[in-house]
Each structure stands twice: as C-alpha cells, then as structure tokens.
Specification:
single chain; mainly beta; 6-stranded antiparallel sheet; 0% helix; 153 residues; 14 strands
C-alpha cells in the first residue's frame, strides 16, 4: 500500500490485549492478524477502508501462530496460518465490504522443531529461520526459502 499524502497515522488496534503478526491482503483491502483477545492466540481479519477497520472475523478454529497471504490460481486470496507448527489455509473473498471464508484446509506442510522464526511470502512459500546446527549460543542463522516437511513422508 502506498501512504496517502498528508494523511496522519492512526491506531487501528488497541486495548489491553496482544495484537501481532499483522499482514495486509495483496490488494490492501483487508488486514489479518493474530490476537489473544479471546484468551487464546487466534487469527482474525477485517476489511479496511476510509473509516478504518471493519468488523473483526475469526479465521482460525483455535490456536494460530504466524500467518500470511497468497494469491490463489483463480485470482482470489488465501490466508495461511500455522497451529502447532502445522500449516492451514482458508480462501478469503471480499465483495462490497463483506468477507466470505472457505473451509479450513491442512496443507500437509509443517515446520521443523528447530524453527525459531518463519514467515509466508506472497506466493505462499515459507521463509524459515533456524539456529545453526552446531552453534551454542546462536551466532548465525540460516535462511531457507521453501523449506517444509510433509506428514506423508
């Protein structure tokens, strides 16, 4: 998204809860993030417009860690998130300010137990950072793009 000239920054989310991992949809019309507002860290999303954020909609069915967007083959959007290091995805459609969610689908991809940070790029690829294998304490990290495991292997 490009900043609007002369626009003043404003707080989108607040309160005595933790909001983190915020990610704009590829078209900039929706914002997804994780929040512990319910007592459990979950993924949520809302539309975004001139008046700020719209109604918050739960995306995950419980725990959610890291999240990111990708563009589906048909041009729609997919929201990816991890729960207990297993990746899940939902199709997300926005039309006239209304959000429609597809079913939660496990992708079969999982993070290794040595991951201490990962992220999802706009193509749905996983960027994975882990501690060097023989290093105590950490003095360097490895960045591995597209590194994932499959439960069926």
């Amino acid at each position: 998204m490009e900043p609007t000239e002369g626009a003043e920054p404003r707080e989108l989310l607040g309160g005595a809860v933790v909001h983190q991992n915020a990610r704009w949809s590829p078209d900039g019309r929706m914002l997804a993030w994780t929040t512990n507002e319910s007592g459990l860290t979950e993924a949520v999303l809302a539309t975004y417009g001139p008046d700020g954020l719209g109604r918050t909609i739960p995306v995950s069915d419980g725990l959610a860690q890291r999240l990111g967007w990708s563009v589906a083959a048909d041009g729609g959007f997919q929201l990816h998130y991890f729960a207990n290091n297993v990746e899940f995805v939902r199709e997300v459609r926005e039309r006239d300010g209304a959000i429609t969610l597809g079913p939660i689908v496990s992708t079969g991809r999982s993070l290794g137990s040595d991951a201490f940070h990962s992220d999802i790029d706009q193509q749905g690829g996983i960027v994975y950072i882990r501690k060097g294998l023989n290093e105590q304490p950490v003095t360097r990290v490895e960045l591995i793009s597209g590194f994932f495991g499959n439960d069926e292997e």
